[in-house]
């Protein structure tokens, strides 16, 4: 203060605070000359003292005339520091930069002044300072700073570097101010500095990014627009920059993605979307936070936020919003596929939720859940666990089996191998104690087996049960559990072409087996026999001499059907369609030595043909008895199948 008072006469200071503009103007001219002389002499301490005096005693004064005088005095000091009349041009401009932070701080405060004249004067000074800064080579950082290294002393380099380093924290602090005039002032400065090619504002973006996002929710449309424009420019620069600190900014964006303000959320999600594309491995440590921020936005009531927020992420599977659940499952599926070992460590935390998601009303959600389960169930342990839990869910939730059973089973067959899935299901059902559920489940599995394109390979294999060891093994594997439903076992025998055993099963049915539910299942089977799946069976009707047991099985079913039923008429019509000449034994001699049934023994006249060989002779009959026994005990009827069929 003493240095300033010794440099500026008292009369000049009095006039600077006078109510008359002319006196303030003359005093400012005096200050300009004084500062110009001090700059020429390199007296930095006195220049700093003058600026401090103008700031503390005038600009910060509660009296309007003092503030006006301080402004015009500060402007005069600025002109004095940047005068182009002296041969010390580069030096004095550099001197101005040294005092930039103090001048900037003073301008920031004055931009919010309640006096209109003060604001007008502050704007004029603001434009002047901006012009000076954009023209000064020494207010550069980055490339220009490298140039500065080649021509300045170490002390000067440190001095200018410190000015930059001090300015950014000052800017960051001021970004928290809510005054609309100050916000406009700050955004204006950020835009100006960023427009100068050699000023690396992008490097300091993490320091004031949060402040810019905060302005997006300002009540002033103009401020929101200015902040959005600045952010858009920075985002474009990020796309074109080879080196960006994504991590620090990602933390800010995650917080802003949860903002109650719609525009702020949209902008934050837009940035995150670009960061995910550009950030690569830099963002791996932040993925958990990013996903946690993104998922709620996917179900945002604002359509734009939903669209932008639909990134390729954790545990929002239970969200009430379908879009959120779908994206959560997409991310879990990706994580399980790419980082299986790591994710399985947390399997217990999500497994129950994943199982419950199978009951989701959305088919898309269910399919994605099954995809996740398939990734998890690649090893035997988790595969068995999945099937056991799935059966438990079917048992406890009849609606799940009824509405989603076919979808779930078919999709699992595609993802995990159909034969593997059916073998495991059969093994579990074989020991099922709930006989009603076992019967219903087997009927469902049988219908899927006979009708789904996903299981066509299994059907082909089962058709070869008489000649292919793999087909025989699969048939035997399914047989025990299929015995929970007589109609299912008959269907399986038809599919495997073990017609003699099919006829035996039909003959073994007793009165209690033939109830309404049985007839409904029989009706379905008769209609299925008319589908392409059983085309081979219908063609075999042309060779009754070779497929005697097929005829006996079909006529056995016909005898069980009510004569007025549609199924009776369908089957009767089919059997009547067999041409009479096909019953001529002389015309039924085999001509192909490569026929897979050449080992079968054909009986002449009205005798039957032993078509099944030994496929079901021992193993199948043993399994049949073991499976039928609990059903018989339950109903106290010997050799009876499940009544609920």
Automatic annotation (TrEMBL):
Q: What is its main location?
A: membrane
Q: Name one GO biological process term.
A: phosphatidylinositol biosynthetic process
Give start and end of each Vacuolar protein 14 C-terminal Fig4-binding domain.
Answer: 399-578
Where in or outside the cell?
Endomembrane system
Q: Where is the composition biased (Basic and acidic residues)?
A: 619-632
- Which keywords does this Swiss-Prot/TrEMBL entry list? Membrane, Repeat
Q: Per the record's keyword annotation, is Repeat included, yes or no?
A: yes
Q: Where is this region: Disordered?
A: 601-645
Q: Name one Pfam family in it.
A: Vac14_Fig4_bd
Q: Name one GO cellular component term.
A: endosome membrane
Tell me the protein family, please: Belongs to the VAC14 family.
- What's the protein here called? Vacuolar protein 14 C-terminal Fig4-binding domain-containing protein
Organism, scientific name: Trifolium subterraneum (Subterranean clover)
Lineage in the entry? Eukaryota, Viridiplantae, Streptophyta, Embryophyta, Tracheophyta
């Amino acid at each position: 203060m003493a240095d300033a008072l010794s440099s500026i006469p008292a009369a000049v200071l009095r006039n600077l605070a006078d109510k008359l503009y002319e006196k303030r103007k003359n005093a400012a001219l005096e200050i300009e000359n004084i500062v110009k002389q001090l700059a020429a002499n390199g007296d930095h301490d006195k220049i700093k003292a003058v600026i401090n005096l103008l700031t503390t005693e005038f600009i910060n004064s509660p009296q309007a005339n003092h503030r006006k005088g301080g402004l015009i005095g500060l402007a005069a000091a600025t002109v004095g520091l940047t005068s182009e009349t002296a041969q010390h041009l580069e030096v004095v401009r550099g001197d101005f930069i040294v005092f930039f932070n103090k001048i900037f701080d003073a301008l920031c405060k004055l931009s919010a002044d309640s006096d209109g004249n003060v604001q007008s004067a502050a704007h004029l000074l603001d434009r002047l300072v901006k012009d000076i800064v954009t023209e000064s080579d020494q207010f550069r950082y980055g490339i220009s700073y490298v140039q500065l290294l080649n021509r300045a002393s170490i002390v000067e380099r440190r001095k200018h570097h410190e000015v930059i380093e001090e300015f950014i924290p000052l800017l960051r602090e001021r970004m928290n101010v809510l005054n609309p005039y100050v916000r406009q002032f700050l955004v204006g400065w950020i835009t100006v500095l960023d427009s100068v090619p050699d000023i690396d504002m992008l490097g300091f973006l993490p320091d004031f990014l949060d402040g810019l996002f905060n302005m997006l929710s300002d009540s002033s449309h103009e401020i929101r627009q200015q902040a959005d424009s600045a952010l858009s420019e920075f985002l474009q620069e990020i796309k074109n920059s080879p080196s960006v600190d994504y991590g620090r900014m990602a933390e800010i964006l995650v917080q802003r993605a949860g903002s109650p303000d719609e525009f702020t959320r949209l902008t934050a999600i837009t940035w995150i979307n670009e960061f995910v594309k550009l950030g690569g491995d830099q963002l791996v440590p932040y993925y958990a936070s990013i996903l946690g921020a993104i998922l709620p936005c996917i179900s945002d009531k604002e359509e734009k936020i939903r669209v932008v927020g639909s990134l390729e992420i954790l545990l929002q599977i239970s969200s009430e919003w379908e879009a959120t659940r779908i994206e959560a499952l997409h991310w879990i599926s990706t994580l399980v596929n790419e980082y299986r070992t790591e994710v399985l460590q947390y399997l217990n935390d999500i497994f129950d939720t994943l199982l419950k998601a199978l009951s989701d009303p959305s088919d898309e959600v269910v399919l994605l859940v099954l995809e996740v389960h398939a990734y998890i169930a690649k090893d035997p342990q988790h595969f068995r666990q999945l099937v056991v839990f799935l059966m438990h869910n079917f048992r406890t939730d009849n609606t799940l089996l009824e509405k989603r059973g076919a979808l779930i089973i078919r999709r699992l067959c595609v993802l995990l191998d159909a034969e593997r899935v059916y073998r495991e299901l059969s093994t579990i059902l074989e020991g099922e104690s709930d006989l009603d559920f076992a019967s219903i489940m087997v009927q469902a599995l049988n219908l899927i087996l006979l009708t789904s394109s996903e299981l066509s390979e299994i059907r082909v294999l089962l058709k070869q049960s008489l000649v292919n060891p793999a087909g025989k093994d699969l048939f035997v594997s399914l047989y025990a559990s299929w015995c929970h439903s007589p109609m299912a076992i008959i269907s399986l025998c038809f599919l495997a072409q073990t017609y003699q055993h099919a006829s035996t099963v039909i003959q073994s049915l007793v009165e209690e087996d033939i109830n309404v539910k049985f007839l409904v299942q029989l009706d379905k089977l008769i209609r299925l026999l008319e589908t392409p799946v059983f085309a081979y069976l219908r063609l075999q009707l042309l060779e009754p001499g070779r497929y005697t047991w097929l005829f006996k099985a079909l006529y056995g079913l016909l005898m069980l059907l009510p004569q007025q039923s549609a199924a009776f008429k369908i089957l009767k019509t089919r059997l009547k369609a067999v041409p009479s000449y096909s019953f001529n034994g002389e015309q039924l001699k085999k001509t192909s030595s490569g026929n897979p049934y050449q080992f079968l023994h054909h009986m002449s006249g009205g005798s039957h043909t032993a078509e099944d060989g030994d496929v079901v002779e021992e193993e199948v009959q043993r399994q049949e008895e073991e499976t039928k026994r609990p059903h018989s005990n339950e109903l106290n009827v010997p050799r009876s199948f499940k009544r609920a069929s």
